[in-house]
Structure formats: structure tokens, C-alpha cells
Amino acid sequence: MTKQINDIKKSIGISNDDSLKARLYTLKGRIEASLEQILEEETPKKENKPTDDITARLSEVEDLIAGYDLKSKIEEANVFINKTMNTLKEKLDFEEELKQGEMKFDLATFNFYYLHKSKKIHLSEMGSGANWLACHLCLFLALLKLTVRENASIPAVLFLDQPSQVYFPKVRRVFSSSNKEELLTDNDTDKVDENIIQVINIFTVINEFLSELTEDENINFKPQVIVLEHADEPELDKFIRERWASKGKKLI
What is residue 114's three-state secondary structure? Predict the structure, then answer.
């Protein structure tokens, strides 16, 4: 037993002359010092923030904003946006049973909903893709009109990505796998699919909307709407400015 104790002492560096208790206290002290150092490094240092200065500055800014009557301006903008949206809605493909409702948008919260029979219907509850498209398109065009009317710093440009996607999965016309330039129909080559009519209507509504802005005495110019599309039906030719899929110019 004595030999084993001596071996342990030797392995941990304790001689016969050393006090085991003293060495353990030393070891304990080193461990505590190391732990304190680790905790100090991991604990974020609290910064003394000049909260009084921030509060005073915030109060000053709020007083300046109050001078602009911002709340009243937001309410006026909401009325303008909602009126524009609901005018556009009448021209787009929207479910008949919901047409009697109103689109509502609040600039203060950026919340959008559809008010129908005193019930708020959110986009997740709107049902068809056509309803979704109509809501988005009406809101984006209304916001565009607001920004150009108020001569805002926001660029007068609106990008739309494939609004036809709602309809084209259902379109009967498809491109031949062997010839991408050949357009096929299932039965009647002269009949224009109802879904294509709705896509044409989307572009027509956008065009008419932009033309109306040039006649508005508060605007008097036409902002730019860029629509990126995969749709390339012959009926859409008059709306197409560039075909990026072909050789030559590319949109980057």
C-alpha cells in the first residue's frame, strides 16, 4: 500500500516533504483562477449605453415627425391605394362570389386582406391562383402609382416575374419537343384558349394602367413595368419587346 501511495505521489509531483493538503489547495486555486478567466472571456461585457441621451433624441425626432402629420398622410395613402386596387380588380380575373368584396392594405403595418361580407380573408385563404395573382398585381400597381404621384425617391420601375404562371399550366397549347418554334393545339387550331385570353388581359390591364398615368395631371409620365415571361404565344407578340432566349441580347 505504501508503495502505491508513493507511486501516486510521484506521478502527480508530490514529494514526501510536501504537504498533500497544501498541494491540493494550490491546485484548487489554479483551477478557480482558470475558471474565472474562462467565464470572464465568455461573459459579454456590459456597455454603458447613454440611455438618457437616446431617449431625449427619440423624443426630439418624434416631435419633428409629429409636425408632418404622418398619421394623416398614411391614412390618405391607404385610401388612395385601396381605391386604385379595387378599380383594377374589376378588370382582372377574380372569382365571382368574391367580387363584391374589397381589397384592403395598410401602409403602417403592411398587412393585406380582402374584406368580404364583413370578414377579413387573408391571401392564404383566397383559394384560386387567379385570386392571388389579381391581389398581387393590384397591390403592386397601386403602390407604383402612389410613388410616382408623390414624386417619391423610389425608382419608378416595377418588375413582375411570370404573372402568366397561374394560367399556363392549364393551357392546352404546348411546344413540340422536337420543334420549339412549332405551336400545337389539341383540337382546334383557330380557337384561342380561355387561359391565354386571361394572360392577354393581364398585359392589357398593365398597358392601360400606364397610359392612364400619363393623363393624370399629378403624374404626367409613364413609369416602366418590366414583365419577365416564359409565355411566348403568337397572341402575345404585340406585348413582347425582347426575346432573351434567342441569340443576341440578354437580360442580366
Answer: strand
Convert the pLDDT of each residue in 133-171 to its tens digit: 999 999 999 999 999 988 788 899 999 998 988 887 644
Domain count, the chain: 3
Quick one: pLDDT band at residue 189, thresholds 50, 70, 90?
Answer: very low
User: Over the stretch 84-109, which tens digit does the pLDDT of each residue have?
Assistant: 999 999 999 888 888 889 999 999 89
* Cβ(213)–Cβ(148) below 8 Å: yes
This prediction has a pTM of: 0.66
Q: What's the sign of the alpha-carbon dihedral 14, 15, 21, 25? A: negative
Q: Which of 206, 213, 89, 205 is nearest to 149 (CA)?
A: 213
Domain contains 148: no
| DSSP assignment letter at 238 | G
Do residues 213 and 145 make contact, with C-beta atoms less than 8 angstroms apart?
Answer: yes
Its domain, for residue 14, covers: 2-42
Q: Mind spelling out the 3-state secondary structure of 173-186?
A: CEECCCCCCCEECC
185 — pLDDT class (breaks 50, 70, 90): very low
Task: State whether 58 and 128 are in the same domain.
Answer: yes
Burial class, 149, CB count within 10 angstroms (exposed 0-12 / middle 13-18 / buried 19+): middle
First to last CA, the chain: 83
